[in-house]
Structures are given as C-alpha cells and as structure tokens.
C-alpha cells in the first residue's frame, strides 16, 4: 500500500511516465451529450492525483436502472457538459474505515456543490443498500465507501460502484484522518465518460 501511495504522491515519477500518459482519455472517451437520451449506460472515470503526482484512474458503473436521475447527474458532472462539474475539485473529507467524500466544486469544504437540477435535489430512492465497499452514495457531493456502511441505508442513495481502481481508492483512504481532514491534496484532475 505504501508503494502505491508513494506512486500517487509523485515519488518515482520517472518510473510512472508511461502509466500517467496511459490514463489520459482518448478521443473515443470524450463526454457523451446525454446518456438518458441515448439509452446508453456509460461508465465514468476520475483521474485522481495526490499532491500533483501522476494520475490514477478510478472507473465507476452507474445504476441507471434503479436511479436514473441521480446517475445522470453524476455522469453530467463528470463530463462538465453543463459548464460545471467535478474536474479540478478535491476530496475534502477522507475517513479511513468509512469513505472518501468529494463533489463540492463550489466551496471545496463540504458546504457547497450543486446538481444539474439545481442546488440540491431529493434522494431518488433507497433501493440499493450500502452492503459492500466501493459504492457511490449520496448525490452531487458523493461518497466512495471503503467498507459496508449499513447505517447509511435509508439516508443516502446508492447510485453506482467502483468497477476498476479499488486499489487507488484504498491508497487514497490512507490520506485521511479520523476527523476527515486529508493529509494530502487529493484532486480529480480529469473526469469524463468512457
């Protein structure tokens, strides 16, 4: 884990040049204009950096079949197609043994953020449960859970899951603290649709 975290923090940059360049989206990975309109259920990604180190890609599957409105909001915020979104924002709260929290691209401290539907929108439903790690939960400000979190059932909407990059989620979790204050600057350098 410490080697992976060192890689994310940018130590050994010479060894990681090829890996860093391979995480950049190709022209075939450019944002779709509307997944809901096309019927496509895309995967989305974050290229995350720690202290300006090389990017690490985390890929998510979105649960359009259960929470289409919430999934579409997250997808659109990944692409930035509405003129705002996750790219360039930080994970402002990281609690080991619980979750990584991000998505506050307006204030950066957990007090802001917005959706494509307005400042806030109502939880769509609570069909999916917080029964395993690596789930996307909440809404425009989001959690990536690192353990099962049943205490969130009925309080937050589960709208997706990490499909690739779990090792990076665990490495980023090590940048957290019991209070949630990150020890490193963890940023979504790029985001979009695959």
SSE layout and pairing:
Layout: H1 2-8, H2 17-22, H3 35-38, E1 43-50, E2 56-62, H4 68-79, E3 93-95, E4 99-102, E5 135-138, E6 142-145, E7 157-164, H5 166-173, E8 186-193
Task: Give the overall shape, derived from the CA principal axes.
Answer: globular
Q: Over the alpha carbons, how many angstroms does the gyration radius reach?
A: 16 Å
For the report, how would you describe the main beta sheet?
8 strands, antiparallel
Unreliable runs: 12-34
Distance between the termini: 27 Å
Q: How many helix segments?
A: 5
Return the string of H and E elements.
HHHEEHEEEEEHE
Percentage of residues in strands = 15-25%
Mean pLDDT: 85
Total beta strands: 8
Structural class of the secondary elements?
Answer: alpha+beta
| Estimated helix fraction | 10-25%
Strand order of the largest sheet: 3-4-6-5-7-2-1-8
Describe what you observe in this structure.
19% of the residues lie in helices and 24% in strands. The chain is α+β, with helices and mostly antiparallel strands and 194 residues long. An eight-stranded antiparallel β-sheet has the order 3-4-6-5-7-2-1-8. Helix 1 (2-8) packs across helix 5. It is globular and about 40 Å long. It starts with a helix and ends with a strand.
Brief synopsis:
With 194 residues, the protein is an alpha+beta fold. It has 5 helices and 8 strands; from the N terminus they run αααββαβββββαβ.
What are the key terms here?
alpha+beta, globular, 5 helices, 194 residues
């Amino acid at each position: 884990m410490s080697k992976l975290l060192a890689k994310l923090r940018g130590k050994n940059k010479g060894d990681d040049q090829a890996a860093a360049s391979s995480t950049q989206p190709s022209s075939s990975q450019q944002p779709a204009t509307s997944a809901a309109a096309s019927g496509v259920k895309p995967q989305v990604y974050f290229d995350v950096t720690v202290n300006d180190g090389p990017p690490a890609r985390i890929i998510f599957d979105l649960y359009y079949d259960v929470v289409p409105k919430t999934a579409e909001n997250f997808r659109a915020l990944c692409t930035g197609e509405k003129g705002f979104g996750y790219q360039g924002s930080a994970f402002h709260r990281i609690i080991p043994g619980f979750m990584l929290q991000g998505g506050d691209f307006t204030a950066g401290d957990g007090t802001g953020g917005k959706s494509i539907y307005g400042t806030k929108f109502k939880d769509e439903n609570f069909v999916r449960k917080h029964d395993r790690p690596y789930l996307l939960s909440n809404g425009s400000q989001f959690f990536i859970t690192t353990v099962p979190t049943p205490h969130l059932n009925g309080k937050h909407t589960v709208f997706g899951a990490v499909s690739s990059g779990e090792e990076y989620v665990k490495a980023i979790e090590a940048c957290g603290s019991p209070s949630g204050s990150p020890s490193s600057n963890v940023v979504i350098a790029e985001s979009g649709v695959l």
